[in-house]
């Protein structure tokens, strides 16, 4: 029953999208500057039906309707309700439905919130967005249908991968999707802007809020994914430079560049084509990321089954998008003679864009390079953290300095009257840096530079906070928290402690200033898994801290899997992080202990970073 | 000029499309199958007691050599050990053991307890040398001839079938 309902609703959606496109073309031919009322109505109906369609699938997950292949493959009747619901988007087919929801709702909201912009521009945006929606609807129906029927109906489902049964992972995809699928709306708007010749300042205003929304959600989505990796994957890292993580970072770089170039377009009416390119690039990179993850080209923790036929569909879709973008760009591109003074705010914003492009290209190359070498020379290589760290980190130092100085510059023409101030701030940053390394006894050139540059940015932003008007608050918050983010990552990286050893029940071990004892082992029976829980005491002889940690080895039944749950004790100074794993045929357990300073502040910095985006969104909404 | 830029952009995208398309049907798991039929790259392994060094030249003296990568902490190595003991009785075959990321005491204990099937024993404390052999986990074994050409790679513990396969080859002389 649910299968038929779902399929029926998907078909209605195809019909409605086509109807919107048809009506929009009809409306384009009319003289008046009004959009037909029925276009609004159909759009609203379309959003509603997509939501109902999604809830139909959710309902199938809740009642464990195993007649649907997707539910059978990704759910189990004994799974807690929360994970049954999140299972809706925890798989390939369901997540595509989430794609379509975001495409549709953004399409509707863009239509109703941009009433003061010209009719043609809005209609073309609507048409292109609906072409994207149609593309994805066809993909769902012909290739990845979540409502596919299975017969005979299985009695029980296969279950959701245990490492995905996690609250952070339940919200990670929706957040990330609002981010990078949301970027579709300014892809459509950019195309529409070229077709309808609606350029410049007004165009910038029409998309600014949308860029901000997607940026904020993309940032939060990446954060939640990182937090999950930190406590679930069990080795204490939070960023792996895994190709799939990179896939989420690439659109983020493009969005960040876009946010800044929009400022110039809005204030000075220049950089129009560059902004258009960034709009197109962001969504193109999002779809490229989807292609890489869903086609199975890359192996990663994102466990979607490999299926080349999906890849071919997305690849064709991606190529059509790219060639349409290139076609319009080539046709509409006019070399402009925008004069930009080399010492002005515009220049600094452009420099930001260069840096973002540098990061983007570095990460893109690192991610795609192994695929290219494999296809061209049959050579399997992997590009890992050393590449990214050594290419990106030194550049971040310069980036942070410019990030502090840039906002001080004035539009059009700037004079640096405050060189003395800059030197004072730099002096302050160096002194704090020396103090940190003197007291904590560690030294490396690059970490000193990272610390000095991030402190420079932090101090400058703080001073700005007292000097500047309230209107620059969003920028100050974002820049300040980015400075803190790099500072905390730097400190965390430099002062982390890691110990790896074997221990049996009742035994104690002393390593440097730490003493560890395995006090107890317990077997717990939970709803969907069994767990061996260890009780470990950790004593630090220098700080006199005493911690009790409870790492777990979990045995899941459906599907049968063993996972190691880290025990983490967080406080404002740092995390005590401990994982325990069994050793075959031995009474010993392997223990990995880490002390990771200031972990929680890394997360808080990212939250503040996105808060800056939110503030900017409110400011923008108030001004318009 | 503009035409050249435009065409090169289009060509670049067509190239990317081509690469992506071709990568769709490829095996994404790391595979070392292609090594079979190739000669071993040059290696330099310290002996277990650090008295001498093994190189490619040492293998050329034997008709056949089985290079076995193992460690005392590896449970499947324990499973395959009896098969290695069986193979150690073969005349045409020498077995070179490479003790992988192990502690000397534990490794010696392991061999005292289960027997030593190895004609030569080398060690790779950091695991870096083993990478040159295309090893990505243990136990793994490589069968080479007197020209150090790889005849077969065994991933995971050796079993009865593997032993028979090895015997067939070495006794075909």
List the helices and strands and how they pair.
The complex is a heterodimer of chains A (624) and B (173).
Chain A: H1 2-28, H2 37-62, H3 69-74, H4 81-86, H5 92-113, H6 119-142, H7 167-182, H8 184-195, H9 201-232, H10 243-268, H11 272-294, H12 308-332, H13 345-377, H14 385-405, H15 419-440, H16 445-467, H17 473-495, E1 497-504, E2 508-511, E3 514-525, E4 529-540, E5 546-549, E6 552-556, E7 561-565, E8 567-571, E9 574-582, E10 588-597, H18 599-623
Antiparallel strand pairs in A: 1-10, 2-3, 3-4, 4-5, 4-6, 6-7, 8-9, 9-10
Helix pairs in contact in A: 1-2, 1-6, 2-5, 5-6, 5-7, 6-8, 7-9, 8-9, 8-11, 9-10, 9-18, 10-11, 10-13, 11-12, 13-14, 14-16, 15-16, 16-17, 17-18
Chain B: H1 2-23, E1 44-47, E2 53-55, H2 56-60, E3 64-70, H3 75-87, E4 93-100, H4 104-114, E5 120-124, H5 128-132, E6 140-145, E7 150-155, H6 160-170
Parallel strand pairs in B: 3-4, 4-5
Antiparallel strand pairs in B: 1-2, 1-5, 3-6, 6-7
Report on this structure.
The complex is a heterodimer of chains A (624) and B (173). Among the domains of chain A are: 1-160, no CATH class; 497-600, no CATH class. Helix content of chain A is 63%, strand content 12%. Chain A has 18 helices and ten strands. The longest helix of chain A is centred in the middle third of the chain and has 33 residues, at 345-377. Chain B is of the alpha/beta class and 173 residues long. Chain B has a seven-stranded mixed beta sheet. In chain B, a hairpin with a 5-residue loop joins strand 1 and strand 2. The longest helix of chain B has 22 residues, at 2-23. The chains are: A alpha+beta (624), B alpha/beta (173). At the A-B interface, helix 12 and helix 13 of A face helix 1 of B.
């Amino acid at each position: 029953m649910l299968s038929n309902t779902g399929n029926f609703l998907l078909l209605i959606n195809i019909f409605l999208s086509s109807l919107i496109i048809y009506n929009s073309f009809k409306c384009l031919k009319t003289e008046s500057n009004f959009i037909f009322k029925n276009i609004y109505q159909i759009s609203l109906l379309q959003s509603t039906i997509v939501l109902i369609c999604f809830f139909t699938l959710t309902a199938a997950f809740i009642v464990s309707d195993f007649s649907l292949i997707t539910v059978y493959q990704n759910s189990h009747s004994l799974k807690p309700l929360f994970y049954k619901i999140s299972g809706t988007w925890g798989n390939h087919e369901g997540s595509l439905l989430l794609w379509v929801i975001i495409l549709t709702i953004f399409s509707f909201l863009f239509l109703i919130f941009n009433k003061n912009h010209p009719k043609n521009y809005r209609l073309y945006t609507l048409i292109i967005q609906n072409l994207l929606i149609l593309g994805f609807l066809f993909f769902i129906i012909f290739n990845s249908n979540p409502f596919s029927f299975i017969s005979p109906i299985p009695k029980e489902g296969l279950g959701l991968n245990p490492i995905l049964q996690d609250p952070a992972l339940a919200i990670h995809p929706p957040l990330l999707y609002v981010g990078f699928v949301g970027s579709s709306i300014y892809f459509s708007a950019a195309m529409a802007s070229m077709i309808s010749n609606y350029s410049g300042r007004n165009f910038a205003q029409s998309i600014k809020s949308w860029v901000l929304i997607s940026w904020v959600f993309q940032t939060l989505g990446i954060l939640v994914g990182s937090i999950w990796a930190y406590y679930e994957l069990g080795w204490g890292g939070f960023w792996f430079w895994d190709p799939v993580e990179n896939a989420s970072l690439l659109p983020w770089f493009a969005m960040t560049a876009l946010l800044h170039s929009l400022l110039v377009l809005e204030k000075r009416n220049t950089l129009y084509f560059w902004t258009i390119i960034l709009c197109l690039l962001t969504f193109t990179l999002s779809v490229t990321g989807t292609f890489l993850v869903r086609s199975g080209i890359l192996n990663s923790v994102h466990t979607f089954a490999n299926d080349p036929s999906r890849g071919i569909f997305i690849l064709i879709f991606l190529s059509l998008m790219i060639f349409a973008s290139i076609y319009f760009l080539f046709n509409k591109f006019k070399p402009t003679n925008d004069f930009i003074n080399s010492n002005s705010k515009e220049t600094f914003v452009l420099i930001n864009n260069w840096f973002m492009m540098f990061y983007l290209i570095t990460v893109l190359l690192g991610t795609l390079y192994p695929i290219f070498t494999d296809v061209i020379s049959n050579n399997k290589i992997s590009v890992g953290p050393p590449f990214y760290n050594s290419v990106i980190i030194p550049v971040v130092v310069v980036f942070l300095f410019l990030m502090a100085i840039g906002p001080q510059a004035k539009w059009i023409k700037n004079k640096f009257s405050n060189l003395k101030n800059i030197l004072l701030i730099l002096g302050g940053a160096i002194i704090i840096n020396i103090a940190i390394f003197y007291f904590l006894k560690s030294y490396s050139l690059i970490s000193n530079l990272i610390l000095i540059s991030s402190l420079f940015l932090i101090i400058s932003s703080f001073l700005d906070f007292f000097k500047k008007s309230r209107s620059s608050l969003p920028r100050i918050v974002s820049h300040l928290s980015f400075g803190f983010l790099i500072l905390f990552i730097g400190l965390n990286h430099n002062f982390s402690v890691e110990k790896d050893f074997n221990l049996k029940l009742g035994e104690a071990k002393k390593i440097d200033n730490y003493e560890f004892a395995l006090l107890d082992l317990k077997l717990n029976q939970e709803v969907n898994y069994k767990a061996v829980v260890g009780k470990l005491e950790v004593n630090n002889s220098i700080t006199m801290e005493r911690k009790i940690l409870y790492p777990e080895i979990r045995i899941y039944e459906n599907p049968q899997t063993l996972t190691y749950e880290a025990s983490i004790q967080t406080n404002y100074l740092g995390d005590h992080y401990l994982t325990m794993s069994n050793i075959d045929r031995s009474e010993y357990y392997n223990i990995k202990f880490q002390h990771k300073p200031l972990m929680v502040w890394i997360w808080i910095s990212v939250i503040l970073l996105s808060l800056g985006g939110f503030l900017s969104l409110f400011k923008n909404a108030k001004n318009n | 000029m503009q035409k050249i830029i435009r065409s090169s952009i289009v060509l670049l995208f067509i190239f990317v499309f081509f690469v992506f398309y071709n990568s769709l049907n490829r095996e994404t798991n790391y595979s070392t199958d292609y090594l079979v039929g190739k000669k071993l790259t040059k290696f330099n392994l310290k002996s277990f007691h650090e008295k001498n060094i093994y190189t490619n030249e040492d293998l050329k003296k034997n008709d056949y050599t089985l290079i076995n990568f193992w460690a005392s902490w590896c449970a499947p190595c324990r499973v395959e050990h009896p098969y290695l003991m069986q193979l150690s009785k073969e005349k045409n075959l020498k077995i070179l053991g490479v003790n992988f990321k192990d502690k000397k005491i534990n490794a010696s204990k392991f061999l005292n307890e289960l027997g030593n099937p190895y004609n030569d024993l080398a060690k790779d404390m950091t695991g870096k040398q083993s990478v040159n052999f295309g090893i990505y986990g243990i136990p793994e074994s490589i069968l080479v001839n007197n020209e150090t050409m790889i005849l077969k790679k065994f991933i995971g513990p050796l079993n009865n079938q593997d032993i028979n396969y090895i015997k067939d080859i070495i006794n075909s002389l």
